[in-house]
Structures are given as C-alpha cells and as structure tokens.
C-alpha cells in the first residue's frame, strides 16, 4: 500500500516508516471547539505538516539531521467532542506514547488541546515546569461555560505544575488576580532587557514542558492565528530562549498551537514547521 507522504511531518525525506524505530512522534490534534474569534485552528496541523514537506533535513546551526532519529506521524485525534473529552483523549494518547518511550510533539488545534498534555506530563515527571510562550495569559477560571476553554489553558496548567509565562501582552482584569508576577515575563518588561532569557531559565525546574501559542510571535511574521496581537517576539527570540533552556534543563515535550492557516499566505505555515524542526534539532543535538 502506498503512503501519502503529504500527511506526514517532513514528508518523504523525513518520515519514519517504522513506529518502533522512531524516537519522535508527531501527534496532530485538529480541534477548534472553543475558539472565540477567528476559526480555523483545526486546519493548523494539516497546514504545518504540508509545509514541513519543503523543509531541508539538515540543520546548519546544530550541524545535524534530526530526521535520522526517526519522526513518525500518528493518526490525528479528531473527535468532534467537548473540550473536556478532548483533553482526556489527548492525555490518554500522550500516556500511550510514554509507554513506548517516545518524545511527543503535539500539534494543535487551539490551546485547550494542551490541557490533557499538561496533566499527563505532570503525572510522569517530578519537578516539572510548564513554560508558556504566548500573547495571552490564558488565566481565566472559566470562559463561555467551560474550564477547558482555550482562554483557561494556563489556569488549568497551574493546577498540575509550576508555570512560567513569557511574551504576554494581553489579558483581562479577572486574570490579574491569578498572575504570579515572579514567574510572569510580560512583553513590555523583556523588550529592552538583554538578560531576560537567563532570567526565565532561573525560574524553571529540571523538567520542562514547552507550550507555544503561535500568537506569541509578532503579527508581521505570524498573522495566521485565532487571536493575533501586535508587538510580539521574533523567530530568533524564541529560538534563543529554547537554546538557553535546553542547555541547562530537560525539555520533555512540547506543543505548537493556534495556527489558523491562510490559503493565500503559506509563510506562517512554514514558520510553524521550521520552528518544530528547529526545536527538535536543539533538543536532540546532544541526545
């Protein structure tokens, strides 16, 4: 039976045919059940995977080809269900990958899909920090009747683990009460602070789960999100932070969420795919 490589991260050049041989798995979760403005995050995983087929496998900076570790794309979790049940489905699938000793990359979908991963990783790893890169605090207790809304993702996260938030530049008055200022790096505070990456590192525990909402990036390079916010980070800001973190602590998994692809502008899709491959290259350089 022939394989449709367009449905697999890195396409024909990087796709591992044997699940058992792969060290890395890509878990697509095309869910958009709680988005509140621009819909389309359910199309994000497919767009990222399509764009990933144009990546060069050799990473210049790390002098490595991370696809040689084996990257296997799992079937998507795509049930049309409540955010609570979706979180449970993600939690169960992440736990399945733990049993097979896989490094899992979760592709959203909107940010509520990360909640299940937060719970699974918090139960597996002691001394876990969840490092959020995002334009929004996502600290609402409940939104539109659910504690599992994308606007509540980090409120739920802090039920499971220590959280550190970076790049935040939008939140409501209600969320202010739940901000832990010692672990919050607002965008305006880090803009002219050359040591902010090292300052973030100091707040992290030895195991880190990284959750990246793509609206952390400036809209000039990432307009394709459900809730775009100006004055964001640039690509190198995020990569340098990941390098700083990965050099000192153990990044145990990560997710990329909130891509709302635009058929007339593929550059954001490619940015998301490149970001994933670059992060994997950094993490696995010395593994």
TrEMBL record:
Signal peptide: none annotated. Keywords: Hydrolase, Metal-binding. CDD domains: Agmatinase-like_2. It comes from the Bacteria. It is an enzyme of class 3 (hydrolase). InterPro entries: Agmatinase-rel (IPR005925), Ureohydrolase (IPR006035), Ureohydrolase_dom_sf (IPR023696). GO terms for molecular function: agmatinase activity. Its EC number is 3.5.3.11. The keyword Lipid metabolism does not apply. Pfam families: Arginase. Coiled coil: none annotated. Belongs to the arginase family. Agmatinase subfamily. This is Agmatinase. It comes from Carboxylicivirga marina. The gene is speB.
């Amino acid at each position: 039976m022939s394989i449709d490589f367009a449905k697999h991260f890195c396409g024909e050049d990087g796709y591992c045919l044997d699940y058992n041989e792969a060290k890395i798995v890509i878990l697509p979760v095309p869910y958009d059940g709680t988005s509140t403005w621009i819909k389309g995050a359910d199309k994000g995983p497919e767009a990222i995977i399509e764009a990933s087929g144009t990546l060069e496998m050799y990473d210049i900076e790390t002098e490595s080809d991370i696809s040689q570790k084996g990257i296997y794309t799992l079937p998507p979790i795509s049930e049309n269900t409540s955010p609570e049940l979706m979180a449970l489905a993600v939690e169960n699938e992440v736990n399945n990958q733990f049993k097979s000793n896989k490094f899992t990359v979760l592709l959203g979908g909107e940010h509520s899909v990360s909640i299940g991963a937060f719970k699974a990783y918090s139960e597996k790893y002691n001394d876990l920090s969840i490092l959020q890169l995002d334009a929004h605090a996502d600290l609402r207790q409940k939104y539109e009747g659910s504690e599992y809304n994308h606007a509540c993702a980090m409120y739920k996260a802090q039920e499971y683990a220590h959280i550190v938030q970076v790049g935040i530049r939008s939140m409501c008055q209600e969320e202010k009460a739940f901000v832990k200022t010692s672990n919050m790096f607002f965008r305006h505070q880090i803009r002219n602070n050359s040591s902010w990456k090292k300052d973030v590192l100091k707040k992290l525990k030895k195991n880190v789960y990284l959750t990246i909402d793509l609206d952390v990036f400036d809209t000039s390079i990432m307009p394709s999100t459900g809730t775009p916010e100006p004055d964001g980070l640039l690509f190198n800001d995020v990569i340098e932070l990941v390098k700083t973190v990965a050099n000192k602590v153990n990044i145990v998994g990560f997710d990329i969420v909130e891509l709302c692809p635009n058929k007339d502008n593929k550059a954001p899709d490619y940015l998301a795919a490149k970001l994933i491959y670059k992060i994997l290259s950094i993490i696995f350089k010395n593994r």
